[in-house]
């Protein structure tokens, strides 16, 4: 996380890709909560504090908690959503 935060300080704009993968998005496996795995929400919040000129690209196949959405609403911030498509 420290490396990502240091880079966010040095660049004009950040493109931050976060989300879930097949470890989290599987049939027959209930998630404990709707948070992104690991410290992804914390990373997003800290990057947004350091560099509000951030695009968050969210790759997920199910609903998730986004506690940082109010921080990203600005003339320069952006949220892009990529949704897993069903294979059935």
Would you give an account of this structure?
The structure is a single chain. With 88 residues, the protein is an alpha/beta fold. The chain has one domain (2-83): Rossmann fold (3-Layer(aba) Sandwich), CATH 3.40.50.1700. The protein is 27% helix and 22% strand. The chain has a three-stranded parallel beta sheet with strand order 1-2-3, covered by helices on one side.
Write the layout of secondary structure elements.
Blueprint: H1 2-10, E1 14-19, H2 40-50, E2 54-60, H3 69-72, E3 78-83
Quick overview:
With 88 residues, the protein is of the alpha/beta class. 27% of the residues lie in helices and 22% in strands. It has a single domain (2-83), classed as 3-Layer(aba) Sandwich (Rossmann fold), CATH 3.40.50.
Keywords:
elongated, alpha/beta, 88 residues, Rossmann fold
Extract low-pLDDT stretches: none
CATH homolog superfamily: Glycoside hydrolase family 3 C-terminal domain
Radius of gyration: 14 Å
CATH fold group = Rossmann fold
User: How do the strands of the widest beta sheet line up side by side?
Assistant: 1-2-3
Helical content stands at 25-40%
* Strands, total number: 3
